[in-house]
Amino acid sequence: MSVSGNPVEIGLFKLGNTYYRIKKQRDVIKTYDELIEKFPMGDLADDAYFKKGEALRKLGDYKSSSITMESLRKLYPSSDFIGRSHTLSGDNYFDTGDFDNARIQYQKMIEMLKLPRDTVAVVPIHGIMKSIQRKDGEKRAIEYADIYID
């Protein structure tokens, strides 16, 4: 990664990435929180928010992960992480049994994509299908699948 900017910001980002790679989730969160606090409008802040949300999810703190994703979307509306933040929030809601909100988040990700060319859509479409299946049954999920299958 070639990033220009404040050396402290870059150092915190690289340290957070190191913790991320070795799966030290609490250190990931602490390091990215420091980066976000010191450089809220820095070039790496949105990335730090997203990885913090992933770390919170890995710790099973789904609510805090979703709140972090909401903050990311609010503070950095043009971030490249917006779509993925909807998928992560959808996964958080799904894993807590809130299938309605899971479906809403997955749908927001799909609306950002250019179907059918964008194969990234498979992940949120799968999430929508599983949410419908869990809430309304397999028959309803199959009926809904026709929207995406030509």
What does this structure look like?
This protein has 150 residues and is an all-alpha fold. It folds into two domains: 1-80, Serine Threonine Protein Phosphatase 5, Tetratricopeptide repeat (Alpha Horseshoe), CATH 1.25.40; 89-150. The protein has eight helices and no strands. Helix 5 runs parallel beside helix 7. The radius of gyration is 17 Å and the shape is elongated. The termini are far apart. The model has no long low-confidence stretch (mean pLDDT 88).
- Give, in order, the helices and strands: HHHHHHHH
- Percent range for β-strand residues: under 5%
* Helix-and-strand structural type: mainly alpha
Overall helicity:
over 70%
Instruction: Give the integer mean of the pLDDT values.
Output: 88
Summarize the main sheet.
Answer: none
Which CATH architecture of the largest domain? Alpha Horseshoe
Shape verdict:
elongated
Head-to-tail CA distance between termini: 40 Å
Compute the number of strand runs: 0
Query: How many separate domains?
Result: 2
- Put simply, the count of helices is 8
Task: State the low-pLDDT regions, or none.
Answer: none
CATH superfamily of the largest domain: Tetratricopeptide repeat domain
- Here the CATH topology of the largest domain equals Serine Threonine Protein Phosphatase 5, Tetratricopeptide repeat
CATH class membership of the largest domain: Mainly Alpha
Radius of gyration: 17 Å
Pfam families: TPR_6, TPR_8
InterPro entries: TPR-like_helical_dom_sf, TPR_rpt
